Amino acid sequence: MTLFLTASTLTLLLTLSYIAMCVVSPFGDCRKCRGFGYIARTDRKGRPKRGKACRRCQATGKRIRVGRWIYNRAVRVHCAGTR
User: How far apart are alpha carbons 32 and 35 in whole angstroms?
Assistant: First the structure.
């Protein structure tokens, strides 16, 4: 019983910390460009150079977190259903 209690407490703690992170900071760094807004490339000599603008984040470097996206969608559905 102690193992189950520890696992459930840890799961609850992780869930609540992710919810708090989504409330405090709804946008996270883009996973493709790592928050730069463009894909970093290197030229033939190995020097870094700016690549094309990131298509996932539209060159902002930020994307909405999954938890915040789900929350926004749930609020939108609730508002549409109670009109």
Answer: 8
